[in-house]
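Hi V.,

Quick status before I head out on leave. The structure for the redesign project is tokenized and pasted below; the design run finished overnight.
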């Protein structure tokens, strides 16, 4: 029986290891995504996701997360949510709501509070120190505040051929209050269709959104392309197009998994990801920038 998972960055590894043990025992992709992403959210030393995540320009950790069930196309998402321990769980619960499935800012935080999701001050002392140091550097060295920040995005396939996807991030470091990127946006930060496969993104949300790249990868896999060919065809020509027509392209990386448990990746920076399937225990892989 086929089952598999893939996730962006090295930080996805332990969560995938845990969730794949459940998939092996017949667990569902929807649960696997929540289990694996929660593990990343709870780890205080990942600087870009939930607890320990780096704050916005005003020192507040504002998080984006999304959840998609590839069987039903149900989507739930939150953007700019704060003081909530596990944004992915809130997104998952919202995916059950037909009318209010994407909440932002104070409304998202209130929803989590009223529905009994655990609250937590997500700003750790360490993240605060990094924030203070960065402000100092920006002022002294005239640096761009927007530098290196990563989303965890995952796609899962279970033994019943169900697929799901999810994302979670504290977004771009030093972002303006209220800024959101691609991670909560269907088609940009994630997309999954159990009859085809799924994809998810990390990188500069402002540019990822311009190409709706997660949807495009799934669409291409639906025409019969392998995940790797779909990633190559969706991502690299778009990077070139952006450079030509917009003048520049941010850093971004996408991973894809099809409903056969095969995966692919495309990136324009050095990138790590974690993946495994029924034949290969989860591992951390390194991908080099493409052409
Ligand atoms: C965003 N895509 O908010 C996220 C951040 C990220 O590498 O993944 N940066 O734009």
């Amino acid at each position: 029986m086929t089952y598999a998972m893939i996730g962006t960055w090295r930080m996805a590894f332990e969560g995938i290891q845990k969730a794949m043990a459940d998939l092996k025992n017949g667990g569902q992709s929807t649960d696997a995504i929540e289990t694996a992403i929660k593990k990343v959210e709870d780890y205080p030393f990942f600087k870009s996701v939930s607890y320990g995540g780096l704050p916005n320009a005003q020192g507040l950790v504002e998080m984006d997360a999304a959840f998609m069930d590839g069987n039903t196309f149900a989507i739930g998402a939150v953007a700019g949510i704060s003081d909530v321990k596990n944004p992915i769980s809130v997104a998952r619960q919202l995916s059950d709501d037909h009318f209010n499935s994407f909440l932002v800012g104070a409304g998202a935080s209130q929803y989590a509070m009223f529905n009994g999701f655990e609250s937590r001050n997500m700003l750790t002392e360490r993240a605060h120190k990094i924030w203070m140091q960065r402000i100092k550097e920006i002022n002294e060295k005239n640096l761009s505040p927007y530098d290196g920040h990563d989303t965890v995005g995952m796609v899962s396939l279970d033994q019943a051929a169900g697929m799901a996807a999810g994302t979670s991030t504290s977004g771009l470091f030093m972002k303006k209050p209220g800024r959101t990127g691609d991670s909560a946006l269907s088609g940009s930060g994630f997309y999954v269709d159990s009859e085809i496969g799924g994809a998810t993104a990390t990188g500069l949300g402002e540019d990822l959104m311009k190409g709706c790249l997660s949807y495009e990868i799934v669409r291409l896999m639906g025409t019969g392309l392998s995940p790797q060919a779909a990633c190559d065809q969706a991502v690299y020509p778009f990077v070139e197009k952006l450079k030509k027509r917009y003048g520049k392209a941010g850093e971004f990386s996408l991973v894809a998994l099809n409903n056969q448990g095969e995966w692919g990746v495309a990136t324009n920076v050095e990138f790590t990801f974690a993946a495994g399937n029924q034949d290969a225990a989860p591992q951390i892989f390194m991908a080099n920038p493409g052409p």
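Above is the designed sequence. The pocket of N-hydroxy-L-asparagine is lined by residues 149-151, 169, 171-172, 181-183, 202-205 (CB under 6 Å).

G. will cover questions while I'm gone.

Best,
W.
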